[in-house]
Specification:
- By secondary structure, the chain is α/β, with parallel strands linked by helices.
- The chain has 18 helices and 12 strands.
- The strands form 3 sheets. A 4-stranded mixed sheet has the order 1-2-3-4. It has a 4-stranded mixed sheet with strand order 5-10-7-11. Strands 6-12-8-9 form a 4-stranded mixed sheet, with no helix packed on it.
- Helix 13 (about 275-290) packs antiparallel against helix 14, helix 14 runs antiparallel to helix 15 and helix 15 (about 320-340) packs antiparallel against helix 16.
- It is globular and about 65 Å long.
Length: about 375
Amino acid sequence: MINQRITKLRQLMKERGIDLYIIPTSDFHQSEYVGSYFEARHYMSGFSGSAGTLIVRQEEAYLWTDGRYFIQAEKELAGSCIQLMKMRTPGVPTIKEYIEKYPASISLINKENGGHGSGINVGSEKAVGKYLKVLDADDWFLTENIPQFIKALENTDADVVLTPHHTINISNGEVKSWRCFPPQFDRIYTMDEVMSQWKNFDRSLTFHGITYRTDFYKTEGIKLSEKVFYEDHEYATFPCSKAKSILPLDLFIYEYRIGDVTQSVSAENQLKRIGHTETVLKRMTAEGKSFSGAAALYCAKKTHLLLLSFLVTSLLCDKNRKAGRKRADEMMDFMNKEYHEVYEMSRKHCKILKTLNRLHIGLTGYNKILNSKLYNKVRHNKSFD
């Protein structure tokens, strides 16, 4: 059974141009003891210990584990095509040393955990390719489109390349497409042109839709906030706002996995980490005030979108309705003083959300009426000011 699974994995690797596949024990949050959903290493190797890493190539497959599990691993790997690598044993390479034998496939960076932003900061510093695109641990690329994507990147020098993406809801199987609708694909736009047609571009101006030219990203010298969640909004805002050339492609690349209660974007975790959102909002406010022209408008739009997320979480997800209103009022007061343009963009939305808060309508009810004619009629009605 294990050999059949490895064979199937190798077939998929070959079809999608993958030379080396790493299957760790941990989940997306680096937990050692994981739920059944994340037991991929156990499923693929048959090894049930709490610590171990499986690496598969076309020619070989190895499992690394420590001294606690040498005897257990030998028994559970018996009869499979997987060889045991006994960690810290003379003559046995570390995972990093093994991977470094194949530099064209992958580069492994060991660092202290500083959060998502820290990983991007270090990875972007070491990036050597013409373009830079970040892939989160719980998402994936449509590898069948990668060759066409690489060819497009080879033939352009745009600061930013935009591609559509899908959201995959693992709780109900729903797949949604998020794409931009420029007047023409495969042509360069300036930031002024993008901002004059914001609704045609905004759905791809996201963490999942943006690919940066590496030299451009590094030249801007942006360092994302570390040890906080939601800094991906900084990633999609600060460098992109300064782009002189933006190329939209009609080619799906990123598959964004949602619908897992453990994710940072779940309603529960957004409320739990509302302070992180506040931290990122205040940094975006400080940075945004230093921009001018189209860059300033872009930053304001992106800050407005994150502020709406903060307001929705505070006013509709917090069971303590009064505390939620207080938090929302404090943030709106801050924006009114520090980033008035964003305050004006968000003022009506906030008023509607506070009304829903007082009516004890939660996130589910809000999502049902969000795109309704009534909602839009109220939002654009001047008497609601």
